[in-house]
Write a structure and sequence with these properties.
Elements (H helix, E strand, L loop, with lengths): L4 E5 L3 H12 L3 E6 L14 E2 L9 H17 L10 E5 L2 H12 L3 H4 L1 E4 L1 H7 L9 E5 L3 E2 L2 H13 L4 E5 L3 E5 L2 E4 L4 E3 L2 E4 L7 H7 L4 E11 L9 E4 L12 H9 L4 H5 L5 E4 L5 E4 L14 H15 L6 E12 L7 E6 L2 E5 L5 H15 L3
Helix pairs in contact: 1-6, 1-11, 2-11, 3-8
Cofactor: FAD
Pfam families: DAO (PF01266)
InterPro entries: FAD-dep_OxRdtase, FAD-dependent_OxRdtase_HpnW, FAD/NAD-bd_sf
Length: about 375
């Protein structure tokens, strides 16, 4: 199909990645965002392109997305792409066994895994002067600036002359070959892609019913500038519990023999930490699955994350300048990265990448374009 007009509902990374794929194939795109700017999970995350934790069956699409992010970073410097890699730091023998198994896995070379002794960890990332037994290095992990990426991508798309972004435009109905917003404006469309993020009700439910997705809440924070470079992203051994790449008898043993601290277990916590371009650290996170979610944030997770980060860095953190909570949409189908539901002949609802939206966005946009023969 050549020269189609797409209307994309949703201004987050998934909607924007689909716009990028469509524009790249010669189509026209109108993108509607109900807020003045995307304010959901897209901007409330680490900006990590996280290859290390993805399962074996997701590895190919993850590496494809990593390559696409690098290409995008070359064309759109404002997204802040950097191939910094990551270090998962282990502090117990049980965690070390999981890291050793990952480094010996058949996919280890593709992922860029290497298990490093403490001296080599510190040579790679001199800011890590704290206590740990080893570090699982993943050279393919990368980062983008989550709060800068979308405006930079929209400016790039706008320069093509085939893209228009409407902020503060809430799609209310799809009538025939047009999308109608809350001001009564009609946007003609050959194809409509609804990328609603965690907004599973309203128009999304009207179009596609109850989808096989759930909402997940997280808490995170950001510090003032560290005053030195953190050359890689870092994670702790608790992160093994939340990523399918590490499943196996060693992880089962870790979960049996070494329970997390009460706070970490209660809030289903892991430490992920990445340095922003301004020097501050984005640190998180928690996992909450049972709705209704609280409207406020709990201080105990922040205290735990601060303690673990300071133990690994071997120094006090700078002051925390921001704290926030966020909600993302996660597919509950173990065989699906996202849920794609055909709501009408020319209407698709696409949601549910979970915590993988930033990592996989570009590849998911290309995959949808391929599936729909754009």
């Amino acid at each position: 199909m050549v020269g189609m007009r797409l209307v994309i509902i949703g201004g987050g990374i998934l909607g924007t990645a689909h716009a990028l794929a469509a524009i790249g194939r010669g189509h026209e795109v109108v993108q509607l965002e109900r807020e003045s700017e995307a304010r959901g999970a897209t901007v409330r995350n680490f900006g990590l392109v996280w290859v290390s934790g993805r399962s074996a069956h997701e590895l190919a699409i993850t590496l494809r997305s990593r390559r696409l992010w690098e290409e995008i970073g070359g064309k759109v410097p404002g997204v802040g792409f950097r191939p910094s890699g990551s270090l998962t730091l282990v502090r117990t023998d049980a965690e070390l066994a999981v890291a050793e198994a990952a480094a010996a896995d058949p996919t280890a070379e593709e992922r860029g895994f290497e298990l490093l002794e403490p001296d080599r960890v510190r040579a790679l990332n001199p800011a890590l002067r704290g206590k740990f037994l080893a570090g699982l290095h993943c050279s393919t992990d990368a980062a983008v600036e989550s709060r800068q990426a979308l405006p930079a991508l929209r400016a790039y798309l706008d320069a093509t002359g085939r893209y228009a972004f409407y902020a503060g435009a809430e799609a209310r109905a799809i009538s025939g070959d047009a999308v109608v917003d809350d001001r009564g404006r009609r946007f003609a469309a050959d194809l409509v892609l609804v990328c609603p993020g965690a907004a599973h009700g309203g128009l999304t439910r009207e179009l596609a019913g109850d989808l096989p997705v759930r909402r997940v809440r997280l808490q995170m924070m950001q510090t003032a500038p560290l005053g030195e470079q953190l050359t890689t992203a870092i994670a702790d051994g608790d992160s093994f519990r939340y990523y399918p790449a590490f499943a196996g008898p060693q992880l089962a043993r870790l979960n049996r023999e070494q329970s997390q601290t009460f706070t970490a277990a209660r809030h289903r916590m892991q430490l992920l930490c990445v340095q922003r371009l301004h020097g501050g650290l984005t640190i998180g996170d928690t996992h909450e699955y049972d709705e209704p979610f609280a409207f406020d944030v709990d201080e105990a997770p922040y205290e735990h994350l601060t303690s673990v980060t300071e133990e690994l860095l071997g120094r006090k953190l700078p002051p925390v300048v921001r704290r926030w909570a966020g909600v993302y949409s996660q597919s509950i189908d173990p065989n699906a990265i996202v849920t794609r539901a055909r709501a009408a002949e020319n209407v698709w609802v696409i949601t549910g990448p979970g915590g993988r939206g930033m990592t996989l966005g570009p590849a998911l946009g290309e995959e949808t374009a391929d599936l729909l023969h754009l």
